TrEMBL record:
Keywords: Iron, Metal-binding, Oxidoreductase. InterPro entries: Cyt_P450, Cyt_P450_E_grp-I, Cyt_P450_sf, Cytochrome_P450_monoxygenase. Its cofactor is heme. One of its GO terms (biological process) is mycotoxin biosynthetic process. It comes from Penicillium crustosum. This is Uncharacterized protein. GO terms for molecular function: heme binding; iron ion binding; monooxygenase activity; oxidoreductase activity, acting on paired donors, with incorporation or reduction of molecular oxygen. The keyword Oxidoreductase applies.
């Protein structure tokens, strides 16, 4: 036993010495604990601290930071987002993306597909469904949810007045309810009715399952075996002895089950409208065949998982600082009122295409998304063949590289010295500067 303990300790020390002093990335600075083990990054993700950690790391160590034994975070406008994530990039996806297809029941989507050619094929299959021309045809259904949100807010105020109390609206709940109801309308032919039930309807369990899925999947992608550890008898025994309830993790499979039921139901019934689900069903592969069930399931799960939460976060990201900015708030109201008066719009809502002609509204939306990206975790890629040199730091081929949406959107070289401050007016200074910021904004 002593010998095995000694061997284990010696192996651990040797691994740490190698990672800190002899690893091909040993010349790149970073936190000692991150250089030692990837578990630190996963722990900070789970704690909900990574969005502040990464800002502090780049402030301390510079534009190229080693955040894990074989992983580097990059913050450099010259190398840029498009060099890592843009069309035609040579930086290929890592094994982390396989976690998003860990159930084994669904096919990869364009997001989770690692093969470049397959990724392109899958994008083309559903491109028509996600085209703006397709979404605009469903604008009236979105407007119905906007109207419902106003009714719900009015009901909340009326209920509060009956008790002579203030009406307190938790916008985290209501923006999420709004986003999911819109998703239901344009995606699946009908609202989830979360606004009507003030976030407490039957569909709440799906929202909770999606939240849990993102928490678990984003972190488990770095684990050997991905989610297979959940099925391990050893893990189950340890959790039982530690009095840890694993039953909640069964929710991870609820989203797939729900998507499966929606597809089967739609195939049995005639569609009342051409929503996204129907367009997925009507889509064809490159050889003219309909998508098979695993492919359909992948697209529906992806839509459920990414379609509403990110939207709700984006709404809150703009709405929160705006209501605290009294000058900006009044400026936006005046812009909208002026647009109504100038275009004689009394009696109807402003359409999406008309919103594009409201410069301050667009600035508020961009600034909100810039300040608080909906996706906080970094999307890893492999450094291309031959490696790359960024800010005089050579990064060998096969190294995991990524950019933080948070850090990228706070880059003072792009957004100015006040990049950490809410300032929608930065988007209105000049067309040249706006184009430059648009190019480097990770969430617009």
């Amino acid at each position: 036993m002593f010998i095995w303990g000694f061997v284990l300790a010696a192996s651990l020390v040797a691994t740490l010495v190698y990672r800190h002093y002899f690893h091909p990335l040993s010349h790149i600075p970073g936190p000692k604990i991150g250089i030692s083990t990837r578990a630190w990054q996963s722990w900070r993700y789970l704690k909900g601290q990574w969005h502040t950690d990464i800002l502090e790391l780049h402030a301390r160590y510079g534009p190229v930071v080693r955040i894990a034994p074989n992983a580097v975070s990059i913050l450099d406008a010259n190398y840029g987002l498009r060099a890592i994530y843009g069309h035609g990039t040579k930086a290929t996806k890592t094994d982390w993306y396989r976690i998003w297809n860990s159930s084994g029941k669904i096919s990869n989507t364009a997001f989770s597909e690692i093969d470049v050619n397959e990724h392109s094929r899958k994008r083309k299959q559903v491109a028509k469904a996600y085209a703006m021309t397709s979404i605009l045809k469903m604008e009236k259904y979105i407007q119905a949810i906007v109207d419902q949100s106003r009714e719900t807010f009015a009901e909340c105020v009326a209920d509060a007045r009956k008790g002579e109390t203030w009406a307190v609206l938790d916008m985290a709940v209501y923006t999420q309810a709004f986003a999911f109801d819109v998703l239901g309308e344009i995606g699946f032919g009908g609202s989830f009715d979360l606004l009507k039930t003030r976030g407490e309807g039957p569909s709440k369990s799906i929202v909770e399952a999606i939240d849990l899925s993102f928490l678990v999947l984003a972190n488990s992608g770095y684990l050997p075996g991905k989610l297979r550890w959940l099925k391990s008898n050893g893990i189950r025994t340890i959790c039982k002895l530690a009095n840890i309830d694993l039953s909640r993790l069964q929710q991870l499979f609820k989203v797939t089950q729900y998507a499966d039921e929606m597809i089967l139901k739609r195939k049995q019934e005639k569609a009342s409208r051409t929503d996204l689900l129907q367009q997925f069903i009507d889509s064809k592969t490159s050889d003219g065949k309909p998508l098979d069930h695993p492919e359909l399931l992948g697209e529906v799960v992806s839509l459920l998982g990414a379609g509403a939460d990110t939207t709700a976060i984006g709404i809150r990201a703009a709405l929160g600082p705006l209501v605290l900015d009294r000058t900006g708030y009044r400026k936006l109201i005046e812009e909208i009122d002026s647009f109504y008066a100038t275009h004689n719009l009394e009696g109807r809502e402003i359409k999406y295409t008309e919103c594009l002609d409201l410069p301050y509204l667009q600035a508020v939306i961009k600034e909100g998304l810039r300040m608080h990206p909906s996706i906080q975790f970094q999307l890893p890629r492999f450094s291309p063949a031959g490696g790359v040199t960024i800010c005089n730091a050579y990064i060998p081929a096969g190294t995991e590289i990524s950019m933080s949406p948070v850090a990228s959107n706070r880059d003072k070289a792009v957004f100015g010295k006040d990049a950490d401050i809410w300032n929608p007016d930065r988007w209105l200074e000049s067309n040249e500067r706006t184009a430059w910021m648009d190019k480097h904004n990770a969430t617009v």
